[in-house]
Automatic annotation (TrEMBL):
It comes from Conyzicola lurida. GO terms for biological process: response to arsenic-containing substance. This is Na+/H+ antiporter NhaD/arsenite permease-like protein. It comes from the Bacteria. The keyword Transmembrane applies.
């Protein structure tokens, strides 16, 4: 509810800016055309993943993953790394943070392991693995539009070297921190029975078809909306009680819409000039490091979405825009509010009885974030 309240306040502030003429109506119209399809995608993909979770798809995947680990905690953790990465790349960071977190907690407890390394892996990779494709992060969808909608393949060609660093470096840090927890063995337990195999199969097939559709070059809201309607129809027939308004992430949409409006108004009021002075110019490695550092710092001070929105107009080139994305996507590992996905992840942690103090989270993030952002930016500079 806090997210909705903040979003409502932001919308009111934005409306005042429109009423006072700070944000012209034509600029507001352009903003609506740009962000409307993005918010529609967020709604559709959330409905799909929530329904798939209700069908037991993620639980089924977790149990199969436990068997693949062959009793070795480190191998099981590597499968979780792969699962979190794939979930983030193809289904977005919020899917990983919100839906995969309880799955890996249940998975770890199911085999008698400490759930913290697995839970922390989901939230770190939800952020740092979200650079490769437009669908991986809301900031990427915004950047794709700014780049002239190059398509998933062209976007991945720009981001791939930095995206690889975003997966590898945080994973190495996590392994070193939790190496004792991951050096043990476990016993594979019997799998839980599936309540409705038809819904399980329907969810699996729907997502299997959806994933390549999201990278086919179609506007991503189209296949996501079709998948939500198809899967929703299955649930209406077989488990109608699950189909409810709460499936729609209205709080997130309200928050994001308010942020878009306020940041556009701030730019109209002169924020761009201030940020241009702070972020500098140039495409050389030092200039890119400076820009990515400003983006990461702003993300941890405020939130990665407004940080990206504030810096996008002053990027000036595709390479510099990717540097902004590196800071906004890979940098939000320090403060709890740096990424909305992190706040949602922590709610799931509390609901599942896993304790992690924010002070420890911050300290670990201070180790991982600067190294990840710096190496990813250098990979961008070398690979460009």
């Amino acid at each position: 509810m806090r997210t909705a309240i903040v979003g409502g306040v932001l919308l009111i502030v934005g409306a005042i800016a429109v009423a006072l003429g700070i944000l012209p109506l034509d600029v507001l119209g352009d903003l609506g055309e740009r962000v409307g399809p993005i918010l529609l995608f967020v709604i559709a993909i959330t409905v799909v993943t929530e329904l798939a979770s209700e069908a037991g798809l993620f639980q089924w995947v977790a149990e199969r993953t436990a068997a693949w680990g062959h009793g070795r905690a480190w191998l099981l953790w590597l499968f979780v790394v792969a699962l979190a990465t794939a979930s983030t790349v193809f289904l977005s960071l919020d899917t990983t943070a919100v839906l995969l977190t309880p799955v890996v907690i249940i998975l770890a407890r199911h085999v008698g392991l400490n759930p913290l390394p697995f839970a922390l892996t989901t939230v770190w990779l939800a952020n740092t693995a979200s650079l490769l494709l437009p669908v991986s992060n809301l900031t990427n969808l915004l950047a794709e539009h700014e780049l002239g909608t190059p398509g998933p393949a062209a976007f991945a060609a720009l981001t791939a070297p930095a995206a690889a660093v975003g997966v590898i470096v945080p994973s190495v840090v996590l392994f070193l921190v939790f190496r004792r927890d991951l050096a043990v063995r476990y016993r594979v337990e019997t799998s839980e029975p599936i309540d409705d195999r038809v819904l399980l199969v329907a969810s699996g097939v729907t997502i299997a078809v959806l994933i390549p559709s999201l990278v086919s070059g179609l506007p991503v809201w189209v296949p996501a909306s079709v998948a939500a309607l198809v899967l929703g129809a299955f649930f209406v027939v077989r488990r109608r009680s699950v189909v409810r308004f709460s499936l729609v992430p209205w709080q997130l949409v309200l928050f994001a819409g308010g942020l878009f409006l306020v940041m556009e108004a701030a730019h109209s009021a002169g924020l761009g000039a201030v940020l241009a002075a702070a972020s500098g110019t140039g495409d050389d490695p030092l200039s890119l490091l400076r820009l990515a550092g400003v983006s990461a710092t702003a993300s941890n001070l405020v939130n990665n979405l407004p940080a990206y929105l504030a810096l996008e107009p002053v990027a000036g080139s595709p390479e510099r825009l990717i540097a902004v994305l590196i800071g906004a996507n890979l940098g939000p590992l320090v403060t709890p509010w740096a990424s909305l996905a992190t706040l949602l992840w922590h709610q799931r942690l509390v609901q599942n009885g896993v304790e992690l103090s924010w002070s420890r989270y911050v300290l670990l993030g201070l180790v991982a974030a600067p190294v990840t952002v710096a190496l990813a930016t250098l990979a961008l500079a070398v690979g460009w």
